[in-house]
Amino acid sequence: MTAQTPRGLVTTAAGIGVAVGVYGVSFGVLAVAAGLSPAQAAVMSMLVFTGASQFAFVGVLAAGGGALAAVGPAVMLALRNAAYGLSLAPILAGRLRKRALAAQFVIDETTAMARAQDDAVTARRAFLLTGISVWLCWSAGTVGGALLGGALGDPRALGLDAMFPAAFLALLAPQLRRAGAPAAAVAGAAIAVVVLPFAPAGVPVIAALAGVVPGLLVAKGVRS
Amino acid sequence: MSWTVLLGLCAVSYALKAVGPVLAGGRQLSPNVRRTLDLVAVPLLAALILVQTFGDGRRLVLDARAPALAVAAVLVWRRAPFLVVVLSAAAVAALVRAAA
Questions:
Q1: Which of A22, A48, A96 sits opposite B22 (nearest CB)?
Q2: How many C-beta atoms lie closer than 10 Å to residue B61's C-beta?
Q3: Which pLDDT belongs to residue A4?
Q4: Which residue of B has its CA nearest to A102?
Q5: Is the pTM of this model over 0.95?
Q6: Whether the Cβ atoms of residue B42 and residue A175 lie closer than 8 Å to each other
Q7: I need a surface site. Which of A109, A185, A210, B68 has the fewest CB within 10 A?
Q8: Cβ neighbour number for residue A41 with a 10 Å cutoff
Q9: pLDDT digits (tens, 9 = 90+) for A153-169
């Protein structure tokens, strides 16, 4: 799924947008069912704009938790965006205002697309194209889902919950060519699975960040 | 649902995203830092895949998402387009659930 040519980039970015849009519809449905107004669901997708956090937030609300209780897991899941933002900093150059706008696009999909490219210019283009595509589709999908509500049926019966791991796998695959990346992936996955039964939502994924260490050690061994 | 909490979450999630681009945007980082940051997304994505395939709250479960991920893995390996991978995974999970 590497996309080097400008046209390839647009096609892949649009494909990611459509897939995320479908998931946005199911977020809209779930958000309204959990007690958000359609306006609140739309504002959340446009401004929070980080899917996993949003699902965690409405998940806690739907389970009967209060709004403040729902913020905890949502913030835990959003922490990884800080790591992504730092890793993208070298390619996000330019005036402060442009960088501040680009920051809103710092999510899993855009980081993965940027990371899959070989040079900084293509990486920047991949980041922006994917960001715009995903932002538009996620927001539009949310509004659609929030207005349609339960008329769509159960998102799980449609298999929509299986879309995200598949999408992340497609985004991860091109990055595995980097030295040390397979070791980092295996370690991250193992950490998450071990931590999951003992920690609240979001923590397993943050703990997986430690998988960078074996990755770096392997990469160092390759270089020396 | 309180607008105050919602807008607070908007502010926090933006602040987290903005740390890198706003404070360090365009900086050339030392090779060691860059190598580390280059790898950051990899274990996070791998963890997300596992958690979203086998996680159910704090339990690990084996359900329709597992065969969906297996099919996605084969398609990724065969270099299928992104949308084909994602929609096939949804279709597999839907079919397995319908059959159950």
A1: A96
A2: 11
A3: 62
A4: B21
A5: no
A6: yes
A7: A210
A8: 28
A9: 777 888 888 888 898 89
Give the whole-angstrom CA distance, residue A201 versus residue A107.
Answer: 18
DSSP state of A190: H
Share of chain B above pLDDT 70, in %: 100
What SS3 state is found at B26?
coil
**Helix, strand or coil, per DSSP, at residue A216:** helix
Burial B63-89 (b: 16+ CB within 10 A, else e): bbbbbbbebbbebbeeebebbebbbbb
Gap between the Cα atoms of A49 and A104, Å rounded: 8
Task: Dig out the tokens for A29 from the structure.
Answer: 């449905």
- Other CB atoms closer than 10 Å to residue A189's CB: what's the count? 21
Domain positions in chain A are: 6-175, 178-224
- The ipTM (two decimal places) reads 0.90
CB pairs under 8 A between A and B: 320
Determine contact, residues A33/A149, Cβ cutoff 8 Å: yes
Tell which B residues from 11 to 30 touch A, by Cβ distance under 8 Å: 12-14, 16-29
